[in-house]
Write a structure and sequence with these properties.
Structural class: alpha+beta
Radius of gyration: 13 Å
Helix content: 10-25%
Distance between the termini: 13 Å
Strand content: 25-35%
Low-confidence stretches: 1-18
Oligomer: single chain
Length: 117
């Protein structure tokens, strides 16, 4: 089973270079809004029937997945960051914990991601 690193305390999306965790404390809508408004991120085209919004940095080192209604674990936000030849995952689970684990497993299967210990 995939384990998730804890979320830090603070004011929202951490923008510092090398950041590996999201600050979940502001809540789903606030974190979602900060990601959508973050300079340097591009929103991927929407895939029909897929209940996710995907954002990526220009250097492809950081990406975010924001769930929409119908997604496992919704509401949830996941940040993937290139680390050590793989992907480190951290995120915010505001909904069903079992569904969130399904979301993490799905993302892991797509990208060969690994979580920090």
């Amino acid at each position: 089973m995939v384990l998730l690193a804890g979320c830090s305390q603070g004011t929202g999306v951490t923008r510092a270079p090398g950041a590996t965790r999201l600050d979940c404390s502001p809540g789903y809508e606030a974190v979602k809004a900060r990601i959508a408004g973050q300079p340097g991120l591009t929103r991927a085209p929407k895939e029909p029937g897929e209940p996710y919004d995907w954002y990526s940095s220009a250097d492809q080192q950081t990406s975010y997945v924001i769930t929409e209604p119908g997604a496992p674990g919704h509401p949830a936000i996941v940040m993937e960051r290139a680390a050590g030849g793989g992907q480190a995952i951290s995120g915010c689970s505001y909904g069903d914990k079992a569904g969130y684990q399904q979301l993490l497993a799905y993302l892991t299967s797509l990208r060969g991601a690994r979580t920090p210990k």
